[in-house]
Amino acid sequence: MELWQLRNRLWTAVLILLLAGVSSASSVVSRGLIEADWRLQDRLRTPESPVTREQDAAGACDGIKNGQWGFHTEHEDRPWWQVDLGTCYELDRMRMYNRTDFAQRAARLIVLVSTDGNDFRQVYQHDGTTFFGHADGKPLTVALRGVAARFVRLQLPGRDYLHLDEVEVYPVGADTNIALGRPCIQSSISQWSRRHSHTESGTPIDLILMRGVRLADHLRGVGVDVAPLEKFAALTDADRRQGSYLQIRWAIREMALANPLLDFDSILFVKRAPGTLPHISDQYYGWWSRPGGGVYILDGFKGPTPRLRCLTQGWAEGNFLRPDLSYDGKRVLFAYCRHYPHVSDMEKVDKTKLPEDTFYQVYEMNLDGTGVRQLTHGRYDDFDARYLPSGEIVFLSTRKGTFLQCTTANTALTLTQTLPDSYVRCGGDNKRPCAVYTLHVMDADGHNIRPISAFETFEYTPSVAEDGRILYTRWDYIDRFNGDFFSLWSVNQDGTNPQLVYGNYTVKPQIVSEARSIPNSTKILFTGAAHHSIEGGALALLNRSLGDEDEAPLTRLTPEVPFPETEAWHDTYYASPYPLSEDVYLVGWSTHRLPPHAGSTQIKDERNPVNAMGIYLCDRFGNLELLYRDETISSMYPIPIRPRRKPPVQPTEVDWDGVQEGNLLVQDVYQGLTGVARGSIKWLRVVAVPPKVQPHMNRPSIGVSAEDPGKYVLGTVPVEPDGSAHMRVPSGIPIFFQALDERGMAVQTMRSLTYVLPGQTLSCIGCHESRDQAPPTGARPLASERGPSKLRPGPEGSWPLRFDRLVQPVLDRSCVECHSLGSPDVKAAQFDLTGQDSYRNLITFSENDLEKLAFEKDRSFPGDGVARQSKLFVLLSQDPIHKRIPLGEDCFERLFTWMDTYAHSKGHFSAEQEQQLIVLKDCYQHLLKP
């Protein structure tokens, strides 16, 4: 057994013994349990993680001036550092001590100030001369002349490293450095970054006191009595502080629970054991469930004798999942499945052999446990239900199935039939089928279920934002690596306008999960989670105004826990955060590390314990106060019981029962295509993606990476001289675009999916344009002045996509005379382009050139299309011998289409699906150009 396992089991045993002595009739959280939890935190929350931006930035305000760097950003555009002074001051001056070596990097240093941390204005820029400080006793002093600010930011105007030794800030009328020891942050970290003294380090009591003082600074302004803690903050002797350990702890807890944000007396939550298969996707299938738990309410949690109520007393042994509370605070949505011990060992592809109630279904009940209604039925997992402002309910479901087109009519079939699922491309088998779940909506009574997403693979953890949008996570790996890219997206309540919010290319965190909009704020709280484990990780705050990728827009709220899997695995993790403000949250905290995904359907309990998590009050200052923990089973998903503001109802533009088509308008493809000359893009190719219908990992292999998405070409439409394009396409089908030059070669490829819903017109600004770019004003796009273009069909063999019908006819007509066994050209005969060998020989030509080009890439750039970079194209267009072969433009179109759709052998996953694609094409002939 590993040391961390032994340690965690020992401390868990201590907690169990303490809790076992508590009478449930009097209190569910004893004083002894709280104190034992503090001691456990002291052991588990001592930072051992990689350096954070906050920890490195703190070196500029630690009082140490030695000519070295106090902080160090990465080499980047406009790097910055900033300090939060805690409150707004009238500022007199700043002093900046430079790093002795490479001091010239700060020669054009800019000083900016802000009162709110969002809107900064420049108050100074250095003149280009080099300054020092420690070496010559002459720090750079900047007069601020009474400017009002809480936040002070330093920034460089170009691309460079930013690093200084020390920064001091002085208010008007005082000679005290008010930046000393204050929270800092910077734009990035580098290999030279490190922790500094007043960040999360030092002895536990110093760390505890520092966190408490930060909280006191915050609460003092809202009328909370912080005097009990202030007397301990004044202690300077370490032994005296240590001797006051419990008094300090209790003073911090009482202060935290007095926060006016805790204007509720009860918390809704769920007790549950995580499933037996730890994976971001498998954890939400009922067949991996473990029994126990229920839906609970914790009453009087701020007082000395909290009380516990179970709302699901008497339910059959099962598993409860991810509740939601109605806006008026009177009703509860949740998911439940019954536990059958034998099901986990069964083959599960034929769902008719499984009990119906082994699948998660959505239920609703009153807050007192009465009026229970089962809203969904059937052998599909339905869960993560959330109330919409309209009274409808959004939820996740596997009902998408194998349909090529997501429609209300197709979804209605799932209400009366057990239909097959669609599956993730990169995992699974008959015992572990990974059925895809996506966003659906139903009426308040469970009727009128409809798919509001046509995405090809998984979507996760929806929530309703303050502005009414639905926030959710999308696993977006279209022709790119499957491990990362679980990005944060938003969509309107009717499913229209799916948009990236954050993280299309971001690797750390690997998964942006459990995102919730913060009340009275534009910021978002989320869990940075791992792909190969259950839901959990580190908490982070997203400030979307600072960017949509990587670290710049993030504040790490739990810096002792790294982002799991892509940074490191830690002994603890957080999950299911519920924000009360930007600073205070309800949260689940685990005393065990995330369980590993070992490729097995059974993980030993010590690696995936049933009782890892309890419910806590957490704040961004580092304080964590136990509210409830059950020694036998995890407690999670805390929600305050109180009415909450209902976001606005968004009007719908979807005609669900109308013609299953919609319009797409691209306003200017050149917006985002850096370096691409106007007039060079002539066509947009529209490529559709069918669902995978086989449960086995990477089977069948239809392309070079073995986990490629299927594809078929709907057709192409012309691009107008101003870059606009207008088309009509089938609704409910996931599609992506390729910008083509005059020869039909891809210049840029979309590495995601979009779709239209019935009757919708979806418009985008450009091609890979900035997410913050506003639509252009002035003249209307030329394509909008006319009706939508009809799709010009791709060559034969592109819908359905088949190499033997798309490319092989070109080879048979123009190539096999030389490139076949028995050819008089001995050298050419060695490169056989007949029969089954032709596909493999083409993609491996010239040291596997096409295979390398077509293999999954994390992102695409203008000009890096497969065909235009391929050595095969160079050979055909430049080699003197091959240039004499009479290949017409129709032949090149076939080759370009095949190569630029990533050189598949075929674009579908079964013969049945191929026939369905043929039928679909027949149904939409009216959209195609004759």
TrEMBL record:
Q: Which InterPro entries match?
A: 6-blade_b-propeller_TolB-like, BG_Antigen-Binding_Lectin, FA58C, Galactose-bd-like_sf, HZS_alpha_mid
The protein's matches in Pfam families, at most eight in alphabetical order, are given as:
F5_F8_type_C, HZS_alpha
Q: Which residues form a coiled coil?
A: none
Region annotation (Disordered) ranges: 769-797
Q: Where is the F5/8 type C domain positioned along the sequence? A: 26-174
* Protein name as it appears in the record: Discoidin domain-containing protein
